[in-house]
Amino acid sequence: MLRRSLTLLTLTMLSGCTLTQSKNHEETLIAINTMEKSVNIQLETMTQQINEQNEHIANLENELSSVSKDVKFVKHKVLTQPKLVVEKQVITIPAEAKPIDIKVANGKAVLGQEEWIWLDSVKQHFKARIDTGATTSSLNAVDLQVFERDGKEWVRFNLSHLNDETSKKPEIIEAPVVRWVKVRQSTSEEAARRPVIEAWIQLGSLHEKVQFTLADRTQMTYPVLLGREFFKDIALVDVGKQFIQGKSQPEAASKTNN
Length: 258
Hints:
The chain is of the alpha+beta class. Helices cover 32% and strands 31% of the residues.
């Protein structure tokens, strides 16, 4: 009886060992298969990447070959084309070319804000202000006297001006009265009655007869003021400049505007 029991126990243990070994073997096979599949997938991926890289390298080689052909073609063209020689051209300015005259623009004289004028009646230069805001022209007149000559009204006055260094002595002028005007000053409510005379002046190439309103301008900077009636059709004004025309010589005066 005891022998039979030992035999059964031995058989049972051997059977259990066999089952355990069989299970471990299956798990090992499964793990090996799984690893094999993973390795195969990695190999396929690497193979695909290598193929793509080879294809890219082949494309680059084709492009390099094309560029090389283009370079050879351009080099051949450069070597075989005739050379273009550019000769220097010397431009000679004609001796008779005249410099730009800044005193004239569009056929008109250019005046600055201040100019020298020559007054024929006293044969002397005076500084004049070119006033684009004034309509009429004005002339300094001190010690003004009205008298009659040949049945007409005349005036006698002193033109000298304290601020004009050219006036060394009294400049007495006598001229017929062309008309009378009323001028209202800012310091007075009543209009002052003033005579108007005509006088020949020269400014640059301009030689014109100008109507002047006589007024005491000793407190002002300029003994002469030229308004728009003088220059509206014959001159342009650049208020940013001064003495553009300079001091004109009376013998060089143009008589075309007389």
